[in-house]
Design brief:
It contains nine helices and 18 strands. By secondary structure, it is of the alpha+beta class. Strand 3, helix 3 and strand 4 form a beta-alpha-beta unit. It is elongated, with a radius of gyration of 19 Å.
């Protein structure tokens, strides 16, 4: 528990490009003021939220990020460096990290969570040194992230994921990857590999039914289906996080692994393409304090 009487100055960083970002800025500011916070907003243009956090690290007590999972991902380096607690306002399309942490989607309720001052230490995954809260993926999900525009997400919301995913799925192909983990090397042919830190990703899909962002483990799975249409049968299990029980899904938990492919492939981190294969994954345990219900 953080002493909320000492948390007076909140750095408010709302992504105007998030689905509900621009429309929620004024209300978020007012609600924070009403709950007793001094609201600090960047007085100059920063190229990313991490720069803003670094610039204000000595003059604020907490950081409030409003946006989707990509907005949180962009704030992660600054949060790790500054050591400031994080308040989350789920204003994006999927808001999977907020879902993992049980943070309500309603703006007023999310700010009430911050004002109560209860926080827990959450893990952060890293891929070639780049931080992620939810999941990293190679293959189909990375192709989806590259194809799904901000305009589509704003206009269609979660439906936008489904529309673009259906278009991509019909032409998706398996790829070969070498997997190095826990003292062994395996070669696999897959449609997608994913490495999860939290539980949810992709608008409510589950990495694993028991996954949390506080267990100090990375949850790996690989969709080794022989035909793309096999995914249709897998979808209910993926939403529940029980897909690891299927014979054409490889799944395990670990603290570190390396994935190599014959040619560089992009790696999707929380919906953002930040690095490429070969990629080394690790877990940074209890890295950031996050306000939770």
């Amino acid at each position: 528990m953080i002493d909320k009487t000492r948390l007076k100055r909140a750095l408010l960083l709302i992504n105007p490009h998030a689905r509900r970002g621009r429309d929620s800025l004024v209300q978020a500011r007012q609600l924070l003021l009403q709950t007793g916070f001094d609201v600090v907003e960047p007085s100059q243009d920063f190229t990313n939220t991490s720069e803003a956090i670094a610039s204000h690290r000595d003059s604020v007590d907490l950081v409030v990020v409003g946006g989707g999972d990509g907005s949180l991902n962009n704030a992660a380096p600054g949060l790790l460096e500054a050591g400031l607690p994080l308040g989350v306002l789920p204003l994006g399309t999927a808001n999977d990290f907020a879902r993992t942490m049980g943070i309500p989607q309603d703006l007023r309720a999310a700010i009430e969570v911050i004002s109560r001052g209860r926080s827990i230490d959450v893990d952060v995954g890293t891929a070639n040194g780049h931080a992620f809260f939810n999941v990293a993926s190679i293959g189909f999900s990375a192709d989806l992230a590259a194809s799904l525009t901000q305009d589509a997400k704003k206009r269609w919301g979660k439906l936008g994921y489904a529309i673009v995913a259906a278009q991509l799925l019909a032409k998706s192909q398996l790829f070969t990857a070498d997997l190095d983990h826990d003292g062994k090397v395996e070669t696999l042919k897959t449609l997608q590999v994913s490495v999860g830190n939290g539980r949810f990703y992709g608008g409510g899909m589950s990495v694993h039914a028991d996954a949390t962002a506080t267990d100090g483990m990375l949850d790996f799975y690989s969709l080794e289906v022989d035909h793309w249409w096999r995914l249709l049968g897998l979808l209910p299990a993926i939403r529940r996080g029980t897909h690891g029980n299927w014979h054409d899904v490889r799944a395990f938990s670990t603290k570190a692994l390396t994935i190599r492919t014959s040619r560089p492939r992009p790696v999707n981190l929380d919906g953002e393409l930040k690095t490429q294969t070969p990629v080394e994954f690790a877990i940074f345990e209890k890295a950031i304090k996050v306000f939770v219900p």
